[in-house]
Amino acid sequence: MPTNVLETLFPNLKAGGYVITSDRNAEYNCIAWAADDTQKWWEPFGEHYYWPPDALNEYSLAAYSQAFAVHGYALCDDAAPEAGFEKIAIYVDAQGIPAHAARQLPSGKWTSKLGKLEDIEHDSLTALEGDAYGTVALIMKRTPERE
């Protein structure tokens, strides 16, 4: 997808700094990507979607928070990089419905899967804030999983 289309969808993206890191892929979405899963599409409802069994089956911040908690995440105070932790950010739209999730990289930058579009690395969380994804509502962290 031409970068100007991404910049049209996300007006803060260019000023915030970003790099496309993968081609389009419809196998997984931003919620899965934030949880470091590239095998499934995470969504509360749908026959072909994955949703953690212990999380509420609804489109709410509480449900998405529970979905990440099942995978070891806990609420935290801020998005600043913290040694020994992986962080994620959950965005909500104007109605308070989760619309996106991003994962922090060891560098302190963030990585996002843009729906069925590309994965990107972006310098800040505000780079994706706006009409499409809303604003960051929640930051969570976990200790990295060991291979």
Commentary on this structure:
The chain has 147 residues and is an alpha+beta fold. It has one domain (3-142). It contains four helices and seven strands. A seven-stranded antiparallel sheet has the order 1-6-5-4-3-7-2. A hairpin with a 5-residue loop joins strand 4 and strand 5. The N and C termini lie far apart (33 Å).
What is the straight-line distance between the termini?
33 Å
- How confident overall, as mean pLDDT? 92
Please state roughly what percent of the residues sit in beta strands, choosing from under 5%, 5-15%, 15-25%, 25-35%, 35-45% or over 45%. Answer: 15-25%
Low-confidence stretches: none
Gyration radius from CA atoms, angstroms: 14 Å
- Write down the overall geometry: globular
Descriptive terms for the model:
single chain, 147 residues, alpha+beta, seven-stranded antiparallel sheet, 4 helices, 7 strands
Helices and strands in order:
Blueprint: H1 3-9, H2 13-16, E1 18-20, H3 30-34, H4 61-70, E2 74-75, E3 86-92, E4 98-104, E5 110-113, E6 119-122, E7 135-142
Antiparallel strand pairs: 1-6, 2-7, 3-4, 3-7, 4-5, 5-6
Brief overview:
The protein is an alpha+beta fold. It has helices at 3-9, 13-16, 30-34, 61-70, and strands at 18-20, 74-75, 86-92, 98-104, 110-113, 119-122, 135-142.
